[in-house]
Amino acid sequence: FDFLAEGCAAGQTLVRLVSRGNAILAELLRLSQNIPPVFKLSSNPKENKDSPFAKYANILFDFKYLKNTDLYEDKVEKNVALRELDSEFREAHIDLLKRFYLLFESIYKYVVDFARYIEDLQQGVFIQLTLDLVLLNSDGKQLMTEALYLFGVMLILMDELIEGTVRERLLISYFRYKDQSETPLIEFVCQLCSRTGYVPGQKYPAKYPVAYFKRYPLPMEVVTMIIGRLRTDDIYNQVRAYPRPEHRSAALATQASMLYIILYFAPKILETEQAAMREIVDKHFADNWIISYYLGYMADLSSTWSPYPAAAAALSNTLQSGNINRHASFYNQQVPKLIKRLDQLLTDGVLTKDFILQRNPMLMDVCRECNVCIRWLILHTQSLNRKVKEIVLQGFDKHNLLMFMLKCAQFEFLLKTTYQTLLDTKEERWNACKSESSDRMKELSEYFSGEKALTRVKKNESLRAWFATISEKVTGLDFFDSTQAGRKIQQLMVALEEVEQFHQIETNLQVQQFLKDTREFLAQMMNIVNIREEYLGILAVVSDMSYAWQLIRKFVPRMQQQIKQDPSSVIMLRSTFLKLSSILDLPLVRINQAKSPDLISVSEYYSTELVKFVRMVLDIIPNSMFIILDKIIEIQTNQLPVLPTKIEKERISATAQLAVRHKLAKATYAISVFTEGMLAMENTLVGVIEIDPKQLLEDGIRKTLVQRIAATMNSILVINSSNPDELSKRLHQLTDRLEGYRRSFQYIQDYVNIYGLKIWQEEFSRIVNYNVEQECNSFLKKKIYDHQSAYQSEAIPIPKFPRVGDSVNFVGRLAREIVRQSSFQSTTYLDQMSGWFDAQGRELIGIRTFTLLNRSIGVFGVTGLDRLYCFMIVKKLQDLVGACRNQIKSRAPYFDKVANELHPTSTIPNSAERVYQEAVKNSASLFDQIIPSVARIGQMQLIRKHIASNLNFSAKIDSKTMFFALDAMNSALLTDVEAHYKNPEEKPYPDNNENPLLPELSEYLEAVGINDPITKIYITTKPLNFFPMFMFFLFLSLSGKFHFSKSLSVLVPNAPRKKGGIDSTPVIVGFITLLKQFHSIHTQKFLAFVGQYIRANINLVPKNPKLTDLPKEVRDLLVFLELLCKYSTSIKREDLESYIPPYVFDFFTHF
Description:
- It contains 48 helices and 9 strands.
- It is an all-alpha fold.
- The strands form 4 sheets. The chain has a 3-stranded antiparallel β-sheet with strand order 5-6-7.
- It is elongated and about 145 Å long.
């Protein structure tokens, strides 16, 4: 019966289950590569001391959490810092945690469904089908074996790739962040996934993995029946692909790997049943003891079976040194012989279609011998037993094995391609040969008729009739009845040989030639008939290399060395990559049969892994190109000066520098040779992904370029010196280095057929943006990890370097160095000079600094710095608003009292002198607590203002069309916004939820410097009572701290810098920024309090005709108010005159 028929419920259910198992394994492999490092923290706190994730140790729990849930939760809840950290961790990881939980749950559900299927079979749910009948059916026993085998592989790979401690932390984290209603199976999943004691890379602990497999026991009767089938049958009928008895272990390799896993479900066989184990070993492991149990994951039976007496005893014959030495010697000697044979076959003109048709069996034998030899050597050179490994490695040459593998892959590729061509044109070639044979017989029939002109041959009616009959018989051969046609062709060839004995034919060379040609055509027809689809299937089985998927990575350095020596060897590597694509066959066959929607995701995963491997191997080409590029950079930068426009005739020879130019040409040629070798690899379909060699070369060049640029910026932008000139020196050094790279990269672009400048700009922007994003992560609750980043790429990864100090990378170091050098505690900002100066009058940061920044890190780098400063300001503002809220809360009764006494602000309070004296006294403590944070915000705002100015100037010079287009667009939109607010019913707002015009335009405007950082609203704030009064008190705290310097035309601190004196301009800008984060009504109230204070103080001054100036307190505040108007666009002189009489400003002069 057809077990896989649509109407067979048992078959369809089982094939869907096996399909699920393969999809689960793909997800397991995928997720194991994306485990967040935070879950891999050591259980020993001392080992985590230097880890950046050490702070998360107190919120990551293993299964001990389940024993005392309340204790652990209270520990987190009672600690504010831990609570915030826990919330941040949840936001960042919940999506990934869900995927891991669903993976673990799917493994549990898989085994539950398999157990239920077995129970249904035993109870007769599937009509007329029993377990015995299923195991007698060829498809049934394959699927039952695979279902059990896949569960075992899931358990072993889960423990190998996701360590027990990590699994427990992942499960508990998900359990904590989700309701119990969302995790109904958590108890069973935890039982299945709890740690086993095994540590990846170390020996198996006692009773492992038997005790692990018993966590969900399956019916032993079913397990033993499956093992029985594997012991006695060739369930996949692989012997047809390997007919020779010495190749039996290779033929049964897939079955052997399944048997190895399934035996752990029946440990009694491994431990006590010597006869059964002897039978298993003699059939499957007589000449091999290292197996690949799933896609290259390896098991050394000499180690894993040693704890089991029956298994160890049965394997002892295989592991005898004489047996090992015999096999190792045989296969090591086979390598040079088979390489020589392959060289002969791969010679141009040998593997023709006719040769393959005639020598098909011999070619298949060569293919089998090569693959058996490669399999044995690749696996057994990885032995964990030192003595065994020494025996195997005697006479072993890794380079020879690599070349053997490459040539074998090339041979198989040519054979497979030709077979496919022959199959595609089989009927066409058959008909052509048949037509040629029939036509020749007709011509011979006419020849012997004696009627054909110029033949001069005696008429022979019998020969004429005989050849006519042969022609008819040839014409009557049926292509679709290959068996009957083959017999007839054989008879016709014998008849044509016999007819040559006739005297009239024997003496006629022309007739003999006709007969010979006809026999050759008939022989070709015979060979064409014998070419069948099954040959491709046998070739696919023989050439399978999925067993080496993990081990092949050890050959990568030698592959790269081979490419470096001979770039044209990429052609052979292409065949090897295609050979490796057999890793898709095992998981996808059942998924395809089940018509599962997982087909796309699983095939994409394995194809992507293959492409990653291809990229890893071929990385040597762009790496080698960049080594040569370093020489070109040296020549162009230091040895070849820029040629002048005009040159004297006498100096032409000296200026030409022919020797240097010869070196340059030689280096350029070397790069073009690598390019030619790479492009020789044609478009190749690897799995479901097509590899374009040109794109692969470009990606490789991009990857190496990214690594070079990132490493350069990381190494140069480390500023440990306190010398103020160090920043400028480093930026000059970076400019020179990057300019050298850029020039040389543009120079070679034509020789490698790429758009050099375009690639440079794209990758440079990606590097900067990625590093800015990672630096900004420290300010975000929900971190952006590499797999979520829009700038990070698997194919062209941006490298990460160890952090230095408080900064994650070079962007942070540069931003903090600029902040340090322009510190409000040690420098003075002069608006007229657009820079920060130290006490000696030396400019530390100014226009030159920002111009140099633009030249070194480019527009992308400068805009990236601007974005980072935004995040820093947001963080500072959040902390500052929090501090203000706490201060207001602690002083609320006093503020309430003062507010009542000062109300209304339009009048002068009766007890003004007393109230303001108390206010000045109470505000004194705020200076040290709040003002430094305000000043830091103002300092970074001034830096942002300079960045905007630099970008604005740069855009006007380099991209004036774009700049003015954006400026016009901005003006038009502002006009529309104003029109909307004047007449909202008729004039719609120029932006809505579906139209992202304003957000996108604002990004462009910031990139060209059409923005004012000081007017920006950085944070959203909740209503805060008494905030205007608090700002007024803060303003009062500045009184007496500064005096006006006529020489500098700026407020300077009264106190020395070492004793707490600070720059005034950052304080003013910080004040403006803080006020801007709240509703404008707060600014009006603040100005009202200040105006009332000034009016009251003027009113308190006794009438004195000799008074020529205002009181000092008033003068200080008036200076600050003027500066507020100067730096703020929202506070104008007219606004101040609403609260302070204009004559006060007219009377006041600070010059």
